[in-house]
């Protein structure tokens, strides 16, 4: 099996790192939901050696993530774990303390119900004052911030009617129910954003 590679992950990993690094300065353990290829996990664990970075994804993606992790050989980057928001994942991860949870480019692939389940789980797992960092394209009050994001949203929904660029108002509703409040909304390259939520 060849190591998977995502050009977009390669392009956005450093801009994301510059945003998350100061916010994770006092953290010791981070759970990543939907690690994809594993490129973000390797990059962030390399740059932030004080953090134990736990990659997760659905079973299909785990072999590729393992290839990245095994090649990196980092002591703070353990083997990836299976996490499916449609399964009973909250109980599976409740035995480990995470200071923060991170997820990139997942909300628009999930259905809206799955996004809600992700927020519910994040709220259940995070300690008080813990951070949930969510990266990707988002709309606001039904308006996209670029024509490219509007096109991306249409293409997602044509491929899968349950997917699509998520509106921040829906996320705020899910977050409030999970005990999370929006702390920062940061503009990123290529019309993406990093949303930072804090557990109350």
Fold and architecture overview:
- This protein is of the alpha/beta class and 200 residues long.
- Helix content is 40%, strand content 21%.
- The chain contains seven helices and nine strands, in the order H-E-H-E-H-E-H-E-H-E-E-H-E-H-E-E.
- A seven-stranded mixed β-sheet has the order 3-2-1-4-5-9-8, sandwiched between helices. A two-stranded parallel ribbon has the order 6-7.
- Helix 1 runs parallel beside helix 2, helix 2 runs parallel beside helix 3 and helix 5 runs parallel beside helix 7.
- It starts with 6 loop residues before the first helix and ends with a strand.
- The mean pLDDT is 97.
Report the major sheet. 7 strands, mixed
Number of helices: 7
The beta-strand count equals 9
What is the CA-atom radius of gyration, in angstroms? 16 Å
Task: Report, as a whole number of angstroms, the end-to-end distance.
Answer: 43 Å
Low-confidence stretches: none
The general outline is globular
Q: Give the class from helix and strand content and strand pairing.
A: alpha/beta
- Helical residues, percent: 25-40%
């Amino acid at each position: 099996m060849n190591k998977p590679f995502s050009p977009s992950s390669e392009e956005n990993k450093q801009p994301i790192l510059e945003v998350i690094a100061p916010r994770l300065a006092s953290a010791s353990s981070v759970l990543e939901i939907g690690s994809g290829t594993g490129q973000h996990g390797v990059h962030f664990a390399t740059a932030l050696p004080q953090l134990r970075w736990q990659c997760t994804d659905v079973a299909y993606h785990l072999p590729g993530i393992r290839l990245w992790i095994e090649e990196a050989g980092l002591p703070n980057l353990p083997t990836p774990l299976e996490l499916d928001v449609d399964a009973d994942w909250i109980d599976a991860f409740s035995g480990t303390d995470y200071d923060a949870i991170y997820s990139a480019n997942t909300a628009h692939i999930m259905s809206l119900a799955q996004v809600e389940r992700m927020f519910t789980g994040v709220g259940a797992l995070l300690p008080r004052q813990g951070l949930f960092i969510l990266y990707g394209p988002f709309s606001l009050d039904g308006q996209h911030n670029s024509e490219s994001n509007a096109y991306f949203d249409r293409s997602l929904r044509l491929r899968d009617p349950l997917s699509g660029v998520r509106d921040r108002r829906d996320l705020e509703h899910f977050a409030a129910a999970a005990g999370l409040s929006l702390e920062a909304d940061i503009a990123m390259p290529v019309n993406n954003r990093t949303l930072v939520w804090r557990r109350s």
